[in-house]
Amino acid sequence: AVQRFGTGGVGLVFGPVTALWFLAIGLSGLKHIITDPEILWAISPHYIVAFFINSPDVSFVTVGAVFLAVTGAEALYADLGHFGRKPIVLAWLAIVFPCLLLNYAGQGAYVLAKGGTVGHP
To answer: Per-domain residue ranges for the chain?
Structure first.
């Protein structure tokens, strides 16, 4: 139904909605980071090295999952013909990446605050 508006028409609606979504998840993560800022220690490379040393099997599977998630971003670059490299890189660095980091760190802070156990919301 929306195809008749073309890429430009869909982008006029989809772009702002997506930006609001990323800002919302970023702010929800920031709320939990402020509550439990201990999660920021996870930025230290010491913990990833310790993870690989102490849990080689689990770390191998985890790295595989991370690579799958990162390669999923390949879909962004499939649309280079529509948007161009510069807008995609700008959107990724200015909105998507920071908001995802805030959200994922916020989820970690939430789990830490709950003693490592979280039920279904």
So the answer is: 45-82, 83-114
